[in-house]
Amino acid sequence: MQTTSKPATRKAWAKAIAQPGKEFPLTPLPLLSGKIPAGLRGTLYRNGPGRLERGGIPVGHWFDGDGAILGVHFTDAGATGLYRYVQTEGYKEETAADKLLYGNYGMTAPGPIWNKWLKSVKNVANTSVIALPDKLLALWEGGEPHALDLETLETKGLEDLSGLNKLLPYSAHPKCDAETGEIFNFGVTPGLKSTLNIYKSDRTGKILQKSSVTLDGLPLIHDFVMAGQYLVFFIPPVRVNAIPVLIGLNSYSDAMEWQPKLGTQILVFDRETLSLVSRGETESWYQWHFGNGYVDDSGSIIIDFARYQDFTTNQRLKEIATGQTKTAAEANLWQVHINPQTSKVTELEKLVDRDCEFPVIPPSQFGQPSRYTYLSVQKKGVDISQEIYGAIARFDGKTHTLTEADLGENRYPMEPIYAPDAINPSQGWIVTVVYDGNSDTSEVWVYDSDRLDEPPVCKLGLPSVIPMGFHGTWKPA
To answer: How many CB atoms lie within 10 A of CB 82?
Structure first.
């Protein structure tokens, strides 16, 4: 929801990003309260921009910060954690120079105009992660993934998932089928007519199959959804005005134009052949993230997603990097029904009338009916133009009720991650990293997934503040 600008006020959450995150080696984490569940065995990995300045100069957008990975290992002996920056080539070069050298999503390369032409956009590896059997991939949708060691988080370098010495753009939201082990993802090759590349991989991440379709202009596609036998993409009416970007006058973010007359395009692909089944169009909206998708008994595709009425969210995310926001951009959880043969929307319903984001379901239920969706939500009564998400909640798709976890004042959870219990298949845990603005510390909180309205079952201390990040994953032991 777009509002008029208000004077920006510095809130408690801003302290979490005021300084670059400080790395720490593998460290035993103190148990602050409760007890680690006996069935919580595995590793939480989280990714996000760890530093938003270099040499005293701020980056242009929250998306521009260098990626840093938090790993928290839960074992029979307790919990240990470590935090390391992804050692991208751009990160190492800028560290040595102690200044910004590259352009990115929200900034052009500093210096003379020819530097803007010669310097490529830096792969910041800051958006998400996927844990493969033998490596962790740090993901950034504008380029290739970086491979890291699962235990030490040591950066191994760019990962060629094609096996053809041909690095491909690999987006930040792969979808994994829990039964087959197949991994689906996409990447966009930019151009005046862009190419949407779709990948099918085995459980090791190796790309076995690829297809592509041509798109009009250069849209912004951040996520997609796996729904039964289909892969579904929503292409919102955002297009990059490519010429100013190519000649170095504008960043990608500043060159993006909201063009609601284009409507939202829907593309449905067959997940076996990766061929296009149908292409359609519906009303305009914007979305960053999907919750889940499945095919119901009538053959319709059912999809849950966090819907914005326009692209004001981009301005808000730009402001977050400064520590002071004045723009409200509200997302609500919606559900859409689609005819897969025509991509026609047959039903559209708002499920949660609260500002919410980062919808998450149990990984075992990707592509299948899932009763519960876990979300980051705004606390009731706050000014959403100036606060960030201060609570997490569970939406029950059967009863249409929301169960909320109250973390208290000036505490800010990151995306809730679902961790299945290793002993009891019907039990699950929600693991989140919380910044406490009262004490200027970061902690790991664990909730019973069925009892978010009760206190956490345990809290763990972290050695340093972890700046708010984007996405994470859970790798069972």
So the answer is: 18
